[in-house]
């Protein structure tokens, strides 16, 4: 940890100069998110992360990462603040071998000491997907037992979680706040990269010479499970390779508004990301 750690616990003020009280777990997620959004208006992602991890939710926050195409950015920032932060990695049992190797390499290079592989429940697999083909007949249910339900169980001990979502990813995320109360769970969801686009992601990766997922160079700008991910042609939406040929466009971990809307093909600034 370096000077980023000093941000935690610092006094914050709003745009009028008035001091803003530090939210705590005593507040409801709605109140905490509202105050934190005021406190961090204009803050850099590293400042948001430092205050979340060390100031607001010490011991009570996890980062959820896919170790996908642009995951290195948040993982790198977190490693400079608290390399022991719990990192939840959804190991669905259907990932590319390259993703598993990249996860190990990135965690080792960044010194992350608490990467937790979150796996589906054996009972769910035995009952609903014994031959591993559910993705072909009912991908929503497959994502439920391999991603959504395991993540829900893994997040149960935490008060907040950090995601890599960005406003530029989809129309429905255009108004996404950095701190969001999560319906029905009592948690706060933190999106430190909400303001970032693909250009800034690439610039950070290049500036810090971070390892890239090996499949990016092979035409996969968005990387999920192997059976549900194909290469993307030039000009296509970076997420066009996910569940290609199906109506499905998201796995159900994040729901923005009332429906999922894929960003138009070729839209500028679209960033591939988990999930
Ligand atoms: S992305 Fe495909 S294989 Fe992975 S959990 Fe969802 S449906 Fe199943």
CATH names the topology as Rossmann fold
Distance between the first and last residues' Cα = 28 Å
Low-confidence stretches: 1-11, 255-275
Share of β-strand residues: 5-15%
What is the count of DSSP helices, taking H or I runs of 4+ residues? 8
How are helices and strands ordered from N to C?
EEHHEHEHEHHHEEEH
Strand order of the largest sheet: 5-4-3-6-8-7
Mean pLDDT over the full residue set: 83
Helix content: 25-40%
Number of domains: 1
Question: What structural category do the secondary elements indicate?
Answer: alpha/beta
Set out the fold topology.
Elements: E1 12-13, E2 19-20, H1 29-39, H2 45-56, E3 61-65, H3 72-81, E4 87-90, H4 97-110, E5 115-118, H5 122-128, H6 134-137, H7 139-155, E6 160-162, E7 179-181, E8 188-190, H8 198-207
This protein binds iron/sulfur cluster.
Word description of this protein:
With 275 residues, this protein is α/β, with parallel strands linked by helices. The chain has one domain (3-241): Rossmann fold (3-Layer(aba) Sandwich). It contains eight helices and eight strands; from the N terminus they run ββααβαβαβαααβββα. It has helices at residues 29-39, 45-56, 72-81, 97-110, 122-128, 134-137, 139-155, 198-207; strands spanning 12-13, 19-20, 61-65, 87-90, 115-118, 160-162, 179-181, 188-190. A six-stranded mixed beta sheet has the order 5-4-3-6-8-7. A two-stranded antiparallel ribbon has the order 1-2. It is globular, with a radius of gyration of 18 Å. The two termini are 28 Å apart. The structure holds iron/sulfur cluster. Residues 92, 94, 135, 139, 142-143, 146-147, 224-225, 227-228, 251 line the site of iron/sulfur cluster (SF4).
């Amino acid at each position: 940890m370096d000077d980023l750690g000093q941000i935690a616990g610092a006094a914050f003020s709003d745009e009028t100069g008035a001091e803003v009280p530090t939210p705590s777990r005593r507040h409801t997620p709605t109140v905490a998110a509202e105050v934190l959004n005021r406190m961090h208006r204009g803050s850099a992602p590293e400042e948001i992360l430092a205050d979340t991890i060390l100031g607001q939710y010490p011991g009570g926050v996890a980062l959820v990462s896919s170790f996908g195409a642009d995951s290195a950015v948040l993982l790198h920032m977190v490693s400079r603040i608290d390399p022991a932060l719990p990192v939840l990695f959804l190991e669905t049992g259907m990932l590319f071998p390259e993703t598993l190797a990249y996860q190990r390499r990135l965690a080792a290079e960044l010194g992350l000491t608490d990467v937790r592989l979150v796996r589906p429940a054996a009972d769910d697999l035995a009952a609903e997907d014994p031959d591993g083909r559910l993705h072909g007949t009912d991908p929503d249910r497959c994502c439920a037992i391999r991603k959504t339900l395991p993540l829900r169980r893994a997040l149960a001990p935490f008060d907040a979680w950090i995601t890599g979502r960005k406003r530029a990813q989809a129309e429905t995320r255009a108004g996404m706040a950095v701190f969001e109360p999560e319906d029905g769970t009592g948690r706060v969801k933190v999106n430190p990269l909400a303001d970032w686009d693909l250009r800034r992601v690439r610039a950070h990766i290049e500036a810090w010479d971070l390892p890239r997922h090996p499949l990016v160079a092979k035409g996969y700008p968005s990387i999920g499970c192997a059976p549900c991910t194909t290469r993307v042609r030039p000009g296509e939406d970076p997420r066009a390779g996910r569940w290609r040929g199906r109506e499905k466009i998201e796995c159900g971990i994040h729901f923005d508004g009332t429906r999922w809307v894929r960003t138009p093909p070729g839209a500028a600034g679209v960033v591939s990301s988990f999930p």
